[in-house]
Design a protein that fits this description.
monooxygenase activity; 3-stranded antiparallel sheet; 482 residues; alpha+beta; 52% helix; oxidoreductase activity, acting on paired donors, with incorporation or reduction of molecular oxygen; heme; Cytochrome P450 86A2; 9 strands
């Protein structure tokens, strides 16, 4: 857990510039900055930029306000046109649209993701990737006694998994030679520059885009890389279909959309693919990285995970004494403590630390604050998990047991208090798929390996819309002695 610098303070309302200097000064650690400010302002505060910039913010981590925004009066809080402009490469996808078009697309996505054959294949892809790529690579790193960047390994793993589920084609980023990750880096750039656009006046970043300078130049290059990748993958997908005579029905995610005339536009296909990588690759990569960060420092939690896995592993060990144990999704589905480990990580380190909404018409929040049409609302999901009155005086401690009820079941927490899977009508349609994939990785890794955090690292967040670690997470793995 990173420590807030003492120099951080509540934002000063300067003449003319208002609170804009405070925002800029803390761009490097905005989630922690919001947490500090929201703790000192009873969960809500206003912020304004210089006159003429249109920067009017309402920042909150108040569960009552969040329920109002996401459920009670959700039509009044769309993502808005500015959000769509910020993430222009995903324009038209579920990530950027609102209203009835979003409702129709969400129904389509939910129908595709809930298909039983697709779910079976996604589970199969995940197990195969863990068994034949991830764990062998870990074993290789152990054999040469070389530390690894777990964030990079998870990024490579999830990129391959996403590409396979989309196109039926494995890019092979987890092969032993660890090939370049140009496309993965381009995806990271989209979220990093998206963060920059959020906190800069619109006129400022649009001018930089027009002049092709600064972060906008880097983003333009990344857009080119992503477009080239999508075209290449689609060509390979079509070639495989043509040569094998297989329409891939039920095997990967793209056919139900490509066979639907409503999704015939190439730009929309590109936007949907990038959005899928964001929803699947980025969020799971970030979460798994923070899981391993915490487990590397919590041997008692690791022991409890292994105790829960032990009955499953015992039945497998008899048939394969020397091989590593791989845990199937059906075997880990009912494991409560493993899910508690995930949820506790998501509470403290949500992959999307800040949600953004726009106010459509003037409204009064349950907290009593008035918001005006055109205001931007920042919901600090990161801060919500660190509020003492919501989670107790140990809210900053990593403690999976807080998710367990007295009878050993998972404790219910309403989504407007635990927002990582969204809330209300916009609840994440791929929640259980994500949980399945993460459980498979965590269980299989922690049963077969011991994980040690290398000393001397500075664990700081990367300035991005996704809560990744700035310089990666360097761990040393050891083959576990059974």
């Amino acid at each position: 857990m990173w420590i807030l610098p003492i120099s951080m303070a509540l934002p000063i309302n300067w003449p003319i510039l208002h609170m804009f200097p405070s925002f800029v000064a803390n761009l490097h650690n905005m989630p922690a900055y919001f947490t500090l400010v929201l703790t000192g302002s009873s969960h809500d505060f206003r912020a304004h930029g210089p006159p003429g910039t249109g920067m009017r913010f309402f920042v909150t981590c108040n569960p009552a306000n969040i329920q109002h925004i996401f459920t009670t009066n959700y039509p009044n809080f769309p993502k808005g046109a500015e959000f769509a402009a910020i993430f222009d490469i995903m324009g038209g996808s579920l990530f950027t649209i609102d209203g009835e078009p979003a409702h129709r697309m969400r129904a389509k996505v939910k129908g595709v993701l809930n298909g039983p054959r697709l779910l079976d294949n996604l589970a199969s892809y995940c197990v195969d990737k863990v068994k034949n790529s991830l764990l062998p690579l870990f074993a290789h790193m152990v054999s040469i006694e070389t530390p690894l960047d777990m964030q990079e390994m998870m990024l490579r793993f999830m990129f391959d998994l996403c590409a396979t589920s989309l196109f039926g084609v494995d890019p092979g980023l987890l092969s032993s030679d660890l090939p370049p990750m140009d496309v993965a880096v381009a995806l990271d750039t989209v979220m990093e520059v998206g963060f920059f656009r959020h906190v800069m006046p619109t006129s400022c970043w649009k001018l930089m885009r027009r002049l092709n300078i600064g972060p906008e130049r880097k983003l333009s290059t990344s857009h080119t890389v992503l477009r080239r990748f999508v075209v290449e993958m689609m060509d390979r997908w079509k070639t495989n279909t043509c040569h094998t005579g297989n329409d891939h029905s039920g095997v990967d995610i793209m056919p139900p959309f490509l066979n639907d005339p409503d999704y015939a536009d190439d730009e929309l296909v590109l936007a949907m693919i990038i959005s899928y990588f964001l929803a699947a690759r980025d969020t799971i990569t970030a979460t798994l990285t923070w899981v391993f960060y915490n487990l590397s420092q919590k041997p008692n939690v690791v022991s409890t995970i292994r105790n829960e896995l032990s009955p499953i592993a015992s039945s497998k060990a008899a048939s394969s004494a020397s091989a590593m144990v791989i845990f199937e999704p059906e075997e880990t589905k009912s494991l409560v403590y493993l899910r508690a480990v995930l949820y506790e990580t998501l509470r403290l380190y949500p992959p999307g630390p800040i949600e953004c909404k726009t106010v459509a018409t003037d409204d009064i929040m349950p907290s009593g604050h008035k918001v005006r049409s055109g205001d931007t609302i920042f919901i600090s999901v990161h801060s919500m998990g660190r509020m003492e009155d919501l989670w107790g005086n140990d809210c900053l401690n990593y403690n999976p047991e807080r998710w367990l009820s007295d009878n050993g079941n998972l404790r219910y927490v309403p989504s407007h208090k635990f927002l990582v899977f969204n809330s209300g009508p916009k609840i994440c349609p791929g929640k259980e798929i994500a949980v399945m994939q993460m459980k498979t990785v965590i269980a299989s890794t922690m049963w077969n390996f011991d994980v040690e955090l290398m000393k001397g690292q500075s664990i700081q967040p990367k300035p991005s819309c996704i809560l990744k670690i700035k310089n990666g997470l360097i761990l040393k793995l050891k083959k576990r002695q059974m």
